[in-house]
Amino acid sequence: MKASLLSPELLIETPDKTRRLAKHLGGLLAPGHCLALCGPLGAGKTLFAKAAAEGMGLPFELLSSPSFAIVHSYESPRGLLSHADYFRLDSLDELYMAGVFELDWTGNISLVEWADKFPSALPEEFLLLSFAFVEGEPQQRKLFALPHGEKHEALLKSWVEFF
Questions:
Q1: Which residue, of 13, 19, 48, 69, is most buried by count of CB atoms within 10 Å of its CB?
Q2: Each residue's pLDDT tens digit in the chain (163 positions)?
């Protein structure tokens, strides 16, 4: 299925395709971009985050899920990357204690896994990427993309042209 801005839904047949798409998107990211990754456990959020970082010039293996540290930061050729994971958090107080509200959303590139747990802990503008399983197809995923803000609309448009 071809994605468009009117119907930003994409069928991803394999984890390799997920990695290629994410790597390409990573190559488009710039400071001020935020990817909010949502979906059930095992749907591909961390794979996508690692591949996006790879597209930013970082080794694929470098990124690990920051479930216990909440936020990891990495210097990349495209700018400072903040990778957050809200999976293990239960309250906004825990986000405050982890320093999430002190992140420089406009100066950093941000990847946030489990972003739907705390939407108020996202910047005003971001690209929502929601992963869903495809029934009967264990390798396939549906990816829904929804931009919030002009900068992320332009990002999605550039990325969709890759498909």
A1: 48
A2: 344 454 578 899 999 999 999 999 999 999 999 999 999 999 999 999 999 999 999 989 887 765 566 788 899 999 999 999 998 888 988 888 887 878 788 899 999 999 999 998 899 999 999 999 999 999 999 999 999 999 999 999 999 887 7
Q: CA-to-CA distance for 154 and 82, rounded, in angstroms?
A: 21
Which residue shows structure tokens 């910047």?
123
CA distance 18 to 108: 23
Find the largest Cα–Cα distance for the chain.
42
- State the DSSP string of 30-69: -TT-EEEEE-STTSSHHHHHHHHHHHTTS-GGG----TTT
C-alpha 118/C-alpha 106 separation (Å) is 19
Cβ atoms of residues 45 and 131 within 8 Å:
yes
